[in-house]
UniProtKB/TrEMBL annotation:
KW Glycoprotein (keyword) present: no
Protein name as it appears in the record: Oxidoreductase alpha (Molybdopterin) subunit
Cellular component aspect of the GO annotation: membrane; oxidoreductase complex
Pfam assignment, any one: Molydop_binding
Family of this protein: Belongs to the prokaryotic molybdopterin-containing oxidoreductase family.
Biological process, per Gene Ontology: cellular respiration
Higher taxonomy: Bacteria, Pseudomonadati, Pseudomonadota, Alphaproteobacteria, Hyphomicrobiales
Molecular function via GO: 4 iron, 4 sulfur cluster binding; formate dehydrogenase (NAD+) activity; molybdenum ion binding; molybdopterin cofactor binding
Residue ranges of every copy of the Molybdopterin dinucleotide-binding domain listed in the record: 680-786
Keywords per UniProt: 4Fe-4S, Iron, Iron-sulfur, Metal-binding, Molybdenum, Oxidoreductase
Cofactor(s) this protein cannot do without: Mo-bis(molybdopterin guanine dinucleotide); [4Fe-4S] cluster
Residue numbers spanned by region Disordered: 1-20
InterPro entries according to UniProt: Asp_de-COase-like_dom_sf, MopB_CT_YdeP, MoPterin_dinucl-bd_dom, Mopterin_OxRdtase, Mopterin_OxRdtse_a_bac, Prok_molybdopt-oxidoreductase, YdeP_MopB
Length: 800
């Protein structure tokens, strides 16, 4: 299986546009690859439709007026991956020991297909053997009862439904633990910290109609063609209306440049492409704070110039600018005035709604252009050009993704996005808002119903009143903290509701060693992955229904719900026959474990499983405003909008204002050993043929890579400077904390259009390089988009 030879890698072929025939071909191939029966394509017609099922891939908005087919290439891949006819069944687990499976690649493990039956690891044979659900619940309950609550981690990956998530956090809290780390800790946590401080919202404020009402989009650090392809429709419509799409991304990402709508026959036949990005700025990794400061500086200086000209006119002088305002700012101001815009900064908005402007403006004025150029990798002209586009636009939408959040200064990155928006009142009016593009299909919603390690974000008193227990008030573990606790040997038990924790988290090598020492690992999953194969002393693998499958309970087929990236709740009804008759739903599994474990609380676990509308009633009782008439509105076309005060310019911050928050530096402080001519900054990236740690295949057609994932994208001048050639095989070595040698081996250098000093390679292959300590101190989000590394010529053959 693992020895399956790969075809010779193809690298550097010209990539087509996003969408188009490449996408259609890819959908076809994946349906065949996953042995999806002919009913597969008709199933896809229900994807993201009211009364259909919500895609298991990304969290992008589901419009009220749907396209005939409301799915994309990667949504179809995710669906095929779930409804595959392949099975990791009894025969499979009978044939392989776990030690043997440890040598398998991520792709090969999941490629075995859906898990079919509950299993327990048997130490004698080193195999997962079948167990009954009752026996599994009974032993897990007994094991949990023997551990102190703070020594258990209740992890979730962001696709579990609102119903499942609500039950899960309640179970953890009644058990006595706030250790509810989730994938969001590695993802948009920097937004969850920054946005409340800046605008008093825990999530982005944009909704779908903002794409129709904006006249400019700042598109930062998100790879739409791969990560949320359905958004390309919204971007295409905007571009067709003449909206400027100003992109900031170190890599030249073809998916951000051109798009052919695969669902528009006319466009497919004529090959008509829409240019997505009107301006493309290849900022350095981690250079966004400097770039945004540069744009703000250009705006503030021009505003100063305009103001001075005005003051001198009133005071009767000749209006010549003084030394503090140079000619460029005056020219900028004049061009904006000529474009008939009344002002450069929206001073009315700033004085009425914000706090902290003077300090921020002073910082922007003080930074020297040379410094902003050096750190951002952009020229002053580029930053000024972006500022000019910004100042000429009346409603600017700020869209961003992981390239901003997964940084040491991820929180400050998000503060800067808001600072720029506040300068011209670009929050809380049609077309002007913050769009934090979420990853997993319900990662935003999980937080909304209490999956969080921070007790302050949960209505604990309400839970206590409803379920008669005393909730723990201590601060629980985030993902990074749970890793630390596992590494320290403090944590004894890990419950994983989805995800592939060992591959998604940093510090892979030490984590795997510590993982094996856990007393109990329980994994609730659909497919086999590394976090199941490496396991604790007592280990369970519990297979669950996927969202696309029919979930039949005592009261009939059930629906579940999730929250999209634009804060709308949607119902979802499975349509496919379950992969096996032995699967349980996630709510049923949680209820099973909870009943076997808990001795307190008065939760009607059984009744909830019989009828999920009862869980929704409980959610509504807990959060009456957010989930008003939840059951009644579940399938409302376009979803149920979640109340977002910041959209109405109501700032739920400590001072009741929207806050300019000034970062105290432009770039993270790196230790001296990580600075040097031979050091490159590495970003870990997703290919177009993966969903997180799920590797569908070995093709990244946008970036011109096929047949391999062991590649390192490097600037051609760096390749030469460092004494390598395109195609050379190198090992990567982490440059920080060199006492611990962290390395990954056998990566093929690919010359790529990326700024000098930066490089990129795929996740999770690069995760062994990331030290656990290398994260944002505020959000604890790992700095997955900037790690200093050194390259060394390799004696290893690339794995694939
Ligand atoms: N097909 C597919 N879809 C997915 C996923 C998947 O793996 N596959 N994962 C889902 C999940 S959980 C998430 S969180 C999202 C992730 O979706 P994205 O937010 O798109 O995340 P990435 O693809 O990791 O990286 C985003 C982009 O950031 C750029 N970048 C890196 N560093 C910087 C920087 O310092 N500054 C700037 N300006 N840009 C930078 C990279 O070049 C890349 O284009 O997608 C979701 N959807
Ligand atoms: N270096 C680096 N590391 C990263 C990132 C990065 O950009 N760079 N990104 C981070 C981000 S943003 C994220 S969100 C994480 C996510 O990383 P992952 O943990 O990979 O997230 P998932 O895609 O949820 O996990 C896949 C597994 O979920 C299980 N699964 C699939 N569907 C279901 C279901 O319906 N129910 C259940 N119970 N299980 C299911 C399957 O068994 C599958 O193996 O990775 C993070 N790690
Ligand atoms: Mo994510």
């Amino acid at each position: 299986m693992t020895s399956k030879p790969n075809k010779t890698p193809r690298l550097g072929f010209p990539s087509g546009p996003a969408g188009g025939w490449g996408s259609a071909k890819s959908v076809g191939e994946v349906l065949i690859r996953e042995h999806v029966p002919l009913s597969g394509p008709s199933l896809l017609a229900h994807q993201n439709k009211p009364d259909g099922y919500m895609c298991v891939s990304c969290a992008w908005a589901k419009p009220a007026k749907t396209h005939p087919l409301e799915f994309c290439e990667n949504g179809a891949k995710a669906t095929a991956w779930e409804i595959t006819t392949r099975r990791a069944d009894r025969a499979f687990f009978d044939a392989h020991t776990l030690s043997e499976l440890e040598a398998w690649r991520d792709h090969d493990l999941e490629e075995q297909g859906r898990l079919t039956h509950p299993m327990r690891w048997d130490p004698a044979s080193d195999k997962y053997l079948p167990v009954t659900w009752a026996a599994a619940f009974e032993e897990i309950g007994r094991e949990l009862q023997a551990v102190a609550p703070e020594k258990v981690e209740f992890y979730t990956s962001g696709r579990a439904s609102l119903e499942t998530s609500y039950m899960y956090q309640l179970f953890a809290r009644i058990f006595g633990s706030n250790n509810l780390p989730d994938s969001s800790n590695m993802c948009h946590e920097s937004s969850s910290i920054a946005l409340p401080e800046s605008i008093g919202a825990s999530v982005g404020t944009a909704i779908l109609s903002d794409f129709q009402n904006c006249d400019c989009i700042f598109y930062m650090a998100q790879n739409v063609g791969t990560s949320s392809p359905r958004m390309l429709h919204d971007l295409q419509d905007a571009a067709d209306r003449g909206v400027k799409i100003v992109t900031f991304n170190p890599l030249r990402e073809p998916g951000l440049e051109r798009f052919v709508n695969p669902q528009a026959p006319g466009q497919m036949l004529t090959g008509k492409e829409t240019q997505i990005s009107s301006n493309y700025y290849q900022v350095r990794l981690g250079g966004d704070i400097a770039a945004l400061f540069g744009i703000c500086k250009a705006l503030i200086q021009a505003d100063d110039a305009l103001h001075e000209a005005h003051v001198s006119k009133v005071s009767g002088s000749d209006g010549t600018p003084d030394d503090s305002n140079d000619a460029a700012a005056v020219a900028f101001a004049a061009s904006i005035a000529a474009a008939d815009k009344k002002h450069i900064l929206d001073h009315d908005f700033i004085s009425q709604h914000t706090s902290g402007f003077e300090e921020f403006a002073a910082a922007a004025r003080n930074y020297a252009w040379e410094e902003l150029e050096r750190v951002s990798g952009l020229t002053r002209e580029q930053m000024t050009e972006a500022a000019r586009i910004y100042a000429r636009s009346d409603a600017v939408l700020m869209v961003y993704g992981m390239g901003l959040t997964q940084h040491m200064m991820g929180v400050q990155n998000v503060h800067m996005v808001v600072n720029l928006a506040l300068l011209r009142g670009n929050i809380g009016k049609p077309g002007a808002n913050i769009c934090a593009v979420r990853g997993h299909s319900n990662v935003q919603g999980q937080r909304t119903v209490g999956i969080t390690e921070k007790p302050g974000l949960v209505p604990l008193d309400k839970l206590s009143e409803l379920y008669h227990f005393d909730p723990p008030r201590w601060q629980g573990h985030s993902t990074v903290e749970s890793c630390k606790s596992i590494l320290d040997g403090e944590t004894k038990a890990f419950i994983g509701l989805g995800g592939n924790f060992l591959r998604a988290a940093p510090e892979t090598v030490a984590m795997e060693a510590a993982w094996r020492k856990l007393r109990l690992t329980v994994q609730i999953a659909t497919k086999l992955n590394r976090s199941h194969v490496v396991h604790g002393e007592v280990a369970y693998l519990l297979p669950c229904l996927g969202r696309i499958e029919i979930d039949e309970q005592a009261s009939g087929p059930q629906a579940v719900s999730m929250e999209s990236s634009v804060a709308h709740f949607h119902g979802s009804r499975g349509k496919a026959k379950p992969a096996s008759s032995e699967l349980l739903s996630e709510p049923a599994i949680i209820a099973g474990i909870a009943k076997a474990t808990l001795t307190r609380g008065n939760v009607p676990w059984g009744r909830w499983v019989d009828d999920y509308s009862e869980i929704r009633n409980a959610i509504e009782r807990t959060y009456p405003e957010t989930f008003k008439d939840f059951n009644k509105r579940l399938f409302q076309p376009g979803g149920i909008p979640r109340p977002l005060p910041a959209r109405e310019r109501k700032w739920v911050t400590s001072n009741g204002k929207a806050n300019f928050i000034t970062p105290d530096r432009l770039f993270p402080e790196l230790p001296t050993e990580a600075i040097g001519e031979d050091v490159l900054h590495l970003a870990s990236l997703r290919s177009n043929d993966q969903f997180n740690t799920t590797i569908y295949g070995y093709s990244d057609r946008f970036r011109g890579v096929d047949g391999t994932r062991q590649v390192l994208f490097v600037n051609p001048q760096d390749i030469e400077r460092l004494g390598f050639a395109d195609g050379d095989i190198v090992d990567l070595i982490t440059a920080i904390d060199p006492e611990t040698r962290r390395t990954v081996e056998g990566f093929r250098i690919v010359a790529y259009d990326i700024p000098k000093g930066c490089c990129g390679a795929y996740y999770p292959e690069t995760n062994p390089l990331f030290p656990l300590s290398h994260h944002s101190p505020q959000s604890k989000t790992p700095s997955y988009k900037l790690l200093p590394v050194r390259l060394s010529r390799s004696s290893h053959v690339p794995l694939n």
